[in-house]
Amino acid sequence: MSDRWRSLLEKICIPVGALVAALVIFGLFCALAGANPFGVYYSIYRAAFGSWSSFQNTLIQASPLMLSALCTALPARLGLVIIGNEGALVLGGLAAVAGGLTLGGWGLPTPGVQLGMALAGMLVGGIWIAIVGALRHYRAVNETISSLLMNYIAIALLNHMVNGPMKDPSSLNKPSTFPIPEMHMLGNLPGSRVHYGLVLGLVACGLAYFLIQRTTFGFAARTAGGNVRAARVAGLPVGKLTLAICFLGGACAGLAGMVEVAAVHGRANESLNANYGYGGVLVAFIARHNPLAASLVALLLGGILASGGILQRSHGLPDATVMVFQGIVFLSVLYSDSLYGKLPIFKARPPKVRPAPPMATATPV
Amino acid sequence: MASEALGWWGIPLAILAGTLRGSAPFLFVSLGECLTEKSGKINLGLEGTLLMGAMSAYAVSYLTGSPWLGVIVAGIAGMFLGVIHGWLSQQPRVNDVAVGIAMIIFGSGLAFFLGKPFIQPSAPQLPVISLGAWSQMPQVQSALQISPLFLAGVAIAPLMQWFFRSSRWGLLVRAVGDSPDAARAMGISIFKVRMASIVAGSFLAGIGGASLSLFYPGSWSERISSGQGLMAVALVIFARWSPVQCLYASLLFGGAQAIGPALQSVGIDAYYYLFNASPYILTLIIMIVTCSPKRTLTGAPGALGQAQE
Q1: Is the CB of B99 less than 8 angstroms away from the CB of A156?
Q2: Does A152 touch chain B (CB under 8 A)?
């Protein structure tokens, strides 16, 4: 029992320690750049969580991150490193606009149009990443490189569509598709500026957790991720699992694109390509590919992203500061992976604090 | 446009010119990646290294007025990122692909952060070597203007081939990449050899960045690299880890990159964005054709990308 607690404590302390270390390194970096690190920390905190109004910005940023993180986190359970989130998100958004305009044109009621947009985004995003999985399984093409290349191809497709076949002639400065009618847009949660994408993100993270941890499908995927050869011997359909889990991951990223289009931009243009894809990769890695943890990490990263503007205005730091911070966090979290089982505090030995945690659980039971 | 006088001949000429201008970054990054992978590690972060090199070369050239100093600093900036990658990716249970993704974010973030003040001003460019003086046509003359860095890269490729095949140090790198256990038995420090290979490879990638900002397109902006650093990883697989074949592959990729602008220059711009994606599509097709689930690729280092104990 106490071993379980110690391992849980290790699982919490190491990532938190990595975040703190990243904050310290980032502070040093800011100091070198001539800004007061404590002022910067305070600004980030205030812009991310300081007031209800700023926390709403954080929530708005967090919802596409949650969805896009699943595009990396789900295939990771199968041992695949997929970073095609950006591409699936962009194409999902494009498909959602196409679906929304078509269904809206047929005069469908708003729920039907919204459902159609979501399904179109998920289908296209899912197929996009399923292609990556198929290439991996049937042709042994490295999934990291192919998914990255497909990001560039997807962005080229987006540019082609919004500058050509799907262009709204009235969008001169920033070529865009025709807008989705206002009445078909995703609404906001009651009493806030936060759109329903947040609910979609939370539900998707919860479902993904259930799927991976509590179903036979998830068990099969985790087995195959642990040892492909053993999974084949056990008769698991590795190819089908790969395709299915890649499709689900891509569908989540596609849904993120739909949310961005249907709740924020109202049309597809190059603003869709706003680095939520790479942010999602970061979220998935920090959360160690656990969907529930991903929803929390997405909140944290959403807050950091929401603070980009204020760093520019009050500290004179360029907007890329947020990107440097993300990079430092990512590197620090990766380093912390090598610390599991190495720190003497978490090693199995009878410490004096041991009796306390089990008693705390014993009372409610 | 100048190509109009040549009619349809303008297209192959523009592609040739684009190949000569645009393949140097591919060449340097792929040679750097080739060296890194020969030692058994993958460095996906060379995209960030390329951007960092481009930024520092441009900044130093602007501040000191000497583009060559910029090239050297670009290499050193690349080495700085290489040390981080080399150290972090060799920690136990740390995945080198994940470190590469993190280094892309960190390297490009750092480049954009430090490079912000240098987007507007124009920095002195590298000198140009003109090989087209024999022709009367100005289009041919301008097509045959070659970067000295490109020539340097063309020279480095066979040198590196010789290094791997015939030199003692090259043997060390190959031994560590093919069979780390045997290398350890010989008393070689795997950590040091891999670190040296990654740092040297990052130096080359940094110089590739200098070729972007100091020759073609010859400016610094956040969109200066469009994935060349990542394509180089695929390019090394295509070149079967052979430096001389990296040279041919870089020319092919440089040519693919020039198709979109070449067609646009003769007025075909309906599929401009899709033609611009041709290097990525080409890379993907090449990987689909050359990879196979049934065998490992010939020429692949034996321990490439394997986890360290």
Answers
A1: no
A2: yes
Residue A9 CA to residue A18 CA, distance in Å, equals 14
Nearest C-alpha neighbor of B70 from the set B49, B53, B47: B53
Report the range of poorest mean pLDDT among A19-33, A209-223, B137-151, B201-215.
B137-151
Min CA distance, A206 vs chain B (Å)?
A: 25
From chain B, the residues in CB contact with A332 under 8 A are none
CB contact under 8 A, A148 and B227: yes
Other C-beta atoms closer than 10 Å to the C-beta of A52 total 9
Q: Which residue, among A255, A249, A173, has the nearest Cα to A211 in the 3D structure?
A: A249
User: Would you state the pLDDT for residue A362?
Assistant: 42
- Please say whether the beta carbons of B230 and B105 come within 8 A: no
Q: Looking at CA atoms only, how far is residue B182 from chain A in angstroms?
A: 25
Amino acid A359: pLDDT: 44
Q: What is the ipTM of this complex?
A: 0.91
Amino acid at B166: S
**pLDDT for position B308:** 57
* Chain A residues with CB-CB distance to B88 below 8 A: 331, 334-335
List the single best residue of A138, A142, A162 to mutate versus B (max B Cβ within 10 A): A142
Please state the rounded mean pLDDT for residues B65-90: 96
The model's confidence at residue B183, banded by pLDDT at 50, 70 and 90, is: very high
Q: What is the mean pLDDT of chain B?
A: 89
CA angle (A93, B256, A84) in 5-degree steps = 30
- Containing B130, the helix (H) or strand (E) segment is strand B129-130
Angle (deg, nearest 10), helices A238-259 and A216-226: 110
Q: Is A353 on the interface with B (CB under 8 A)?
A: no
DSSP 8-class letter at A167: B
Show which of residues 257-316 on chain A sit within 8 Å of chain B, judged by CB atoms: 278, 281-282, 285
Collect the ranges in chain A with pLDDT lower than 50.
Answer: 354-365
Q: Nearest chain B Cα to A328, which residue?
A: B106
* A149:B280 CB<8 A: yes
> Domains in chain B, ordered, with CATH?
8-290 (1.10.3470)
- The predicted-structure confidence for B7-63, as pLDDT tens digits, reads as follows 777 788 888 888 988 899 999 999 999 999 999 999 999 999 999 999 999 999 999
Three-state secondary structure call for residue A142 = coil
Quote the pLDDT of residue B56: 96
Q: Can you tell me the distance from the alpha carbon of B38 to that of B51, in angstroms, rounded to the nearest whole number?
A: 23
What are the backbone dihedrals phi and psi of residue B164, each rounded to the nearest 5 degrees, phi first?
Answer: -70, -40
Question: Which chain A residue is nearest to residue B110, measuring alpha carbons?
Answer: A324
